[in-house]
Every structure is written in C-alpha cells, then in structure tokens.
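Risk register update: the risk of archive-format incompatibility is retired. Evidence:
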Amino acid sequence: MKHDPANTKRTLLDDGTERHTAASLTKYEIEKAEWRGPMRAAVVYEVVRRSGDHELERPTKSLVFSSIAAGIVITLSILTEAYLRQALPDTDWAHLIEAMGYTTGFIFVILARQQLFTESTITAVLPVMAKPTANNLFAVARLWTIVFLGNLVGTAIFALWFTFYPPAGPETLEAIREISMRAMEPGFVETIMRGICAGFLIAGVAWLLPSSRGFELHVIFLITYIIALGKFSHVIAGSAEAWYLAFGGYSGFFEVVFGFIVPALIGNVIGGTVLFAFLSFGQVVAELDEKPAEHSNGAPQNDDEDGRICPDAAQTAAASAGHETRK
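Archived output:
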C-alpha cells in the first residue's frame, strides 16, 4: 500500500529529519538516494561533500598510515605494467594491453578506501566551497600535506626496495626502467598539461562512485585506463617511477623533483580542484536553496514504485556510514 507523499514527508519532518542548511536536502532523501539510483546532481554533490567532511576530520595517525599504504599499493600499477610489457611482443597494439596494468593500483587503493592525494582534490574541497571558513581551509591544507607526503613516502619505499633488494628478475626491472623513462620524457609545461588531464579524470572517479554502486570496479578501470592510454601524468603513481630512476642512478633528484613531481602536482591540483571541483559545484549551486522535490530523488516514500521497501533506519545509517556532516 502506497503512502501519501505529503503525509510521509510531514511524518519524516515530525520525526526530527533536518534539511542540510546548504543543500536544502532532507537526510532521508540523501540516504534513500545512496541506496537507490539514479541520483540527481545535487544529491551526488552532497554525498561527495559529506565524504570530504569525513576525510577532513580523520585523525592524523589514520591519515599517515592510510596515505603511506596507498603510496605503496599504487605501485602495483607500474609493477603490473612491467610484467605485461615484458610478456607482450613488440607490436603496435601491445600498449593497449600494457595500459590495463596501470589500473591495478588505483582499483586496489580506491576500493580499499586508502588516502590517495589526487582523489582528495575534489572531496576535500567541496566542504570548503560549501562553507569557506578559516577552519575548513586549514583542514584542507592539513589533509593535503599529510596525504601527499605520505603517498610520496610510500612510493619511495617501493623504489628503494626494487633498487637495492629487488624481488623481480632483470627483465622486469628493465621494463620498470623503460616505463619510468617514458614518464620523464615530457618537459615541465607538457607535464603540467598532462597532469591537468589526469587530475580531472581522477576527480571524476570520486564524483561517479556514489551513483555507481555495484559497478565501482568498472568505473575505476575505465577512467584509469584512459589515463594510461593518454600517457597523462599522475603525480603519485608517477612518483614511484621517478624515485626508481633517482635511486637507481638513471636520473638526478633535482630532475625528478622539478622535472616531474612538481609539474605533475601543479597539473593534478588544477585539473582536480580548479576545473573539476569548481565545475561540479557550479552545476548544482543554483539548486542548493531549492525546496526538496516531491518524488524519488525527490519525495521520500516508504515504498518504492515497484513495491520494494526502502531501507529502515538501521540500513540507511549503514549505507551512509562515513558521510557525517561537518559542524
């Protein structure tokens, strides 16, 4: 039996449901949208913003360990690429398969919810756009600093390990060197341009995941595969290659830092924050003061149109865990 939308809405409000002051969305609407798609843009924005709130409030110790782990795990990308490269024949289509290896580290890191710097360029910025206070600006600076340095420490651990105590054969190490040299080929400006593309695409992953429940792996694979095919510069994944060249004596530390890491960082921040975050915020800013709609991704109802029952309070709380609203 269907409930009257007006009665349902009134009951929910009487039960204490609050609307978020920025988005004018009931918590019930957001929680239901997280459970059942498709989501409208304002709800996707709110889910990503809440995720950013959670990241900004994580303890320093958690951020440090998570970011170092992400830096180590992301090196699965270069390692898998190297294994594929040494196994494939030298043909025009070999790079199409080799590029698939690049997706491995990103899939592991993102699905494991480890702290990756480039993914934080959008999630951590949205709360600041919603509430640009000194406290939030400091929180973003803190998060970015810890996560970026932690990621670099993780990739450096990989590079040191494979340089001095390599658990791989000479063919694999040579493949890693060749892949790393290729990443260092572009100049400063070109690396920035390539970094903008990579930052924009990785930020897109954070925006797509809330509405891709059950297909997260496909989304991550597709986006990171495009990055590999386009030879775009990702500062964290690429830093593993850069450190390997530096520790192995194939390139100088000054060249590694200022020839790749700095321009790739600039590009990733521009692509993820200046472009994607601002554009994403811009597409919903006009809707943030609207009254909640009356229908799905609109009107909260206890029953779906196809007869399915919406999750109860416990289920919705579980579905929205980790998306607490920042004070």
